[in-house]
């Protein structure tokens, strides 16, 4: 990686380009149909050439995979499907030699029902110390046949499951993911030990899954809208937990990024105070429709949220839970909402691809850090996974109405003429690749200067080497209706045209990069972005 990369600085995370690796679908090193650490290690040169500063790995720990690895059975063991702890240590070290840091996922709200703690809790019975690590309660009703409260699930269905001895346990997600009791000191000690375990192996940061859900009202009351503090979302007790975590991270110079869905900007900012988390994901921008006014508002609100605590913003277009950018931007409704996901939503991939290219330059030009989900640099669309092959629990717990998240998790295409598009499998991958998947293969795009991969490589190279990108000053510039125009430091300007007609470019000394060709009159076509060097 280039010497000017943010990876070489103490505050690398403020400007970093971070690539999300969903190991199961990235690359298969042993040919069994499942991506693994050997596959990632083999692709490290590709990632270095792409120009990213860090890799964020979705959970790679021992797991029954009831929810894609977010049901962790042992944080100190790599799932055998992915490899071994020794391989993970080699991967962390080899990536660092290439200037790429590693961020791992921690899922503190819950564990797997196969975790040793939960198995001991089931064996221990009512009133046992082992059950105090979770939320076990007697049921309501004459015979305890009703759940202890009415909390809604994150995945539809009930949040309570009854065990053989009659007690119920809480799970905000699936029954295979029992919630931990964060009021218990042993839960806090264990997670701080897990943090140290990975920091001592060279991990540079931790992404915290469902970061606002850990603390629960100890009375576990029914949920009543507007009745005071929420019983399990964004409770004040959380901040003491994260202050303790921050003290651990500071011992190692490591960082945190929180998954915090929070409509209240003031409460959101509390997670980013100097003694808590370093950064948090920007879901408002991710879900925003392709609309100039709405995008401008999202950008302004994001920067305003972060300014009071001095935290850098983060920008992301897609991740392992949401519809891929090319598909979403080609639909009539270009926003994202879990509740709106349905089968058979039409899309125009030509329009979606054009908008996704422009959005790439927009997100990479904004101040702060940026996250890139694997396959976005290839312009992959959402895959239509046959219903019989869907594995995501969101689909099943919706009664089959929600297509789930598997469509953005289909194994990547690497070599067009190889079996299974070069994913590495000698048997069919764990999720089927759709017809025509090989057309997106990395080897074809490397040879095509107009490909999505070529655009991302050049944009990331320029972002690393041009002073002015990353964290730093930002100012809006005047522009025609339907356009976004802003200035960064050192005369850098980004213009995005979301209007129906071409837009005039502001005065500049050079056009540095465009997401598509300018028209014959040198104007910026619709759904196109440009990076410029300003006259000023």
Write the layout of secondary structure elements.
Layout: E1 17-21, H1 23-26, H2 37-42, H3 44-50, E2 54-57, E3 61-62, E4 74-78, H4 85-97, E5 101-106, H5 116-124, E6 136-137, E7 160-162, E8 168-170, H6 185-199, E9 205-208, H7 238-252, E10 255-258, H8 265-270, E11 279-280, H9 283-287, H10 292-306, E12 314-316, H11 325-329, H12 349-365, E13 369-373, H13 393-397, H14 442-446, H15 452-465, E14 475-476, E15 483-487, E16 492-497, E17 508-514, E18 528-534
Parallel strand pairs: 1-2, 1-13, 2-5, 5-9, 9-10, 10-11, 12-13
Antiparallel strand pairs: 3-4, 6-8, 7-8, 14-15, 15-16, 16-18, 17-18
Q: Provide the spatial order of strands within the biggest beta sheet.
A: 11-10-9-5-2-1-13-12
Estimate the helix proportion, in percent.
25-40%
Structural class category:
alpha/beta
Strand content: 5-15%
* C-alpha geometry: globular
Assembly status: single chain
Rg over alpha carbons: 23 Å
Largest sheet: 8 strands, parallel
Whole-number average pLDDT? 94
Low-pLDDT parts are 1-8
Give the termini distance in whole angstroms. 31 Å
**What's the tally of helices?**
15
Number of strands: 18
